[in-house]
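Input sequence (279 aa), recorded before submission:
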Amino acid sequence: MELLIDGKRISREIKDELREKMTELKARGVERCLAVIQVGSDPASSVYVRNKKKACEYVGVKSLSYEMPEETTEEELLGLIGQLNSREDVNGILVQLPLPEHINEDRILLAIAPEKDVDGFHPVSVGSLSIGRPGYVSCTPAGIIQLLKRSGIEIEGKECVVLGRSNIVGKPMAMLLLRENGTVTVCHSRTRNLKEITRRADILVAAVGKPRFVGADFVKEGAVVIDVGIHRNAEGKLCGDVDFESVAPKTYAITPVPGGVGPMTIAMLMSNCVNGIEG
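Predicted structure, token format:
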């Protein structure tokens, strides 16, 4: 039987550790505060924001919530970010994506002070990761590293294949696996002989954004498969980028959808908030 990597359990472990650390920090008079900004009322974004608030409450991080109307201008949003950048009591700023079409996401992410960029999206954060300096790391890839480590899966020396090259998951994932001494290949929509490459992987991270794209013929016997995707199928059930039913029997370990990578993203956001850049 393949090992089912339980993201819910591992994320709860991390949040419990952070809760303990926050208790110690508060005893020394140190607080942590996360400001969350949502523009518009996208239902999925509202769920994410609600979950982030709950996690803050559980861990002991103070949260400030700014729910702005859809018609908010870019200048108004930049003004709020400027105010939060200058507030000493705010340690982290998070702008929930996606933003309405009339707002330039890149300009907004650039406006967040790098020392408060707990999402790890600012070019300074990305640059720090690429040259091995301390900095905030994008939460989903950081969570995947924790899933592997806390499941007893060795990364060093392993052949690692990342399927997807997005700025939020694919690229930082490759850099984190390199940092752990994995041998890393990044595949994407223009990759030739894709299945030949993915079948070499000891650790395969699927972040391609296509439901059930990765079938059993993509995976070698005994591989570890991490599924980053989340979609709804024709029956309305959640599924990932991996065709779980056909792939799971071939693997040494695999993440389910839901309950795998998803819960880790918020756990690592909380870790960024509590531990700061050095975390």
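Checked by second reader. The chain has two domains: 31-116, 139-262.
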